[in-house]
Design brief:
Length: 139
């Protein structure tokens, strides 16, 4: 990673964003992966009491965006923004936490592609997602 951003500063940076509103917590950031967890509760449920697929997508995109941000050559002149995301919802969750692990597939100069796997507390696959990030010039 190129950034010296700490987990504490990531939490502070995201406190007033959708990440903070959904209760997402970043757990680890290394060269190999970024991990976070998200509560499965009234903030992330759909009307029938199970984890909303959109909440899983928010977790996936947040992980990939942070992972790309940590790899920017110059975060003062560059931004990492979502270009495309897909998600397959494999299993439902009704309570507790889900855990996301983001690993790189491709780290190019202008695009990054990430594999994000979201599991429940029993390490069962809940959602698998692929995210493409565009590296753009900040305005």
């Amino acid at each position: 990673m190129k950034s010296t951003l700490t987990l504490e500063s990531l939490i502070e940076l995201n406190k007033k964003s959708i990440v903070g509103h959904l209760g997402i917590e970043f757990l680890e950031a290394t060269d190999e992966h970024v991990t976070a967890r998200m509560p499965v509760d009234e903030r992330t449920h759909q009307p029938f009491g199970i984890l909303h697929g959109g909440a899983s997508v928010v977790l996936a995109e947040s992980l990939g965006s942070v992972a790309s941000f940590l790899r920017l050559s110059d975060p003062t002149t560059q931004r990492a923004v979502g270009l495309e995301i897909n998600a397959n919802h494999i299993r439902s969750a009704t309570s507790g936490w889900v855990y996301g692990k983001c690993t790189p597939i491709h780290l190019g100069r202008t695009t990054h592609v990430w594999d994000i796997r979201i599991t429940d507390e029993q390490e069962r696959l809940v959602c698998i997602s692929r995210l493409t990030i565009a590296i753009i010039t900040a305005k």
